[in-house]
Amino acid sequence: MRYVRFPRLSFADEAIDLAILDELRDYYEFGVMLQSDEMQRSENRAVLRLLRQALQERMDQKLERVFRLLGLRYPPADIYSAYSGLRSQRSDLRASAIEFLDNLPERTDAYADLSPEESAAAEFLDRFDITFSLVAKGKQCPPWCDKKSHTHGICYDITFTKPERDNLEFPFWDSQHNQQLKLEPTAYSVLACISNDAYCPDKFEDFCSEYGYEEDSRTAEKLFNRCSEFSDQINNFFTAEEIEALSKIR
Ligand SMILES: [Zn+2]
């Protein structure tokens, strides 16, 4: 699925990794040359000095390119800090840059078999240390459903947890599509839904004009109350930063 939908993006990741490896191999080979016995000989000093200087310059260029390529795969600001740290005269900055680079997550491997939507959802949960779980409750209608003689579909109890925070819990009815395929809701389908529900106009009048309801409609009023309550629940659980990141999951 990933390859069909974003063929260029996925292959680009692999191409970038290969380019990084190429640059690193050159960098390493130049390093070996620079340290070799031939480079340390005392005859032809002037020539060797020029050669050493040229090699050192090429290595600097290679290193810069490695970091530019890394900036395409990881947050560029972080990569830039790591690069400055590595080039710094201060050994403590160099050490922390190396530690940072050592701990770069292997993004492609972790999310390789997920669709772009699901990997965005998984990254969101990982980034903010949020876990997501669900329990199937069987076929049932929500309390507000007033249709007779039908079943709404399978209801799931959804729970989001984060350390040192009260859980976010709510019932969820999955899409018809997933139910027909007998699939459970995925993190993406639930996050996309709450991303959409995070915003609710403050006033009933605004709600009506935005969503096209008559202000004297009892149904609209009930709907507004439900949306507004759910939006509060979402905004109480997630921080503003998380809501901002969540808004990109659609
Ligand atoms: Zn129903």
Detailed description of the structure:
The structure is a single chain. The chain is mainly alpha-helical and 250 residues long. It has two domains: 2-110, no CATH class; 116-246, no CATH class. The chain is 63% helix and 9% strand. The chain has helices at residues 2-5, 7-35, 37-40, 45-73, 76-87, 91-102, 107-111, 116-127, 176-180, 187-197, 204-211, 218-237, 240-246; strands at residues 131-139, 154-161, 168-173. The protein has a three-stranded antiparallel beta sheet with strand order 1-2-3. A hairpin with a 6-residue loop joins strand 2 and strand 3. Helix 5 crosses helix 6 and helix 8 crosses helix 10. The longest helix has 29 residues, at 7-35. The two termini are 17 Å apart. Mean pLDDT is 85; it is low at 1-9.
Topology:
Elements: H1 2-5, H2 7-35, H3 37-40, H4 45-73, H5 76-87, H6 91-102, H7 107-111, H8 116-127, E1 131-139, E2 154-161, E3 168-173, H9 176-180, H10 187-197, H11 204-211, H12 218-237, H13 240-246
Helix pairs in contact: 2-4, 4-5, 5-6, 8-10
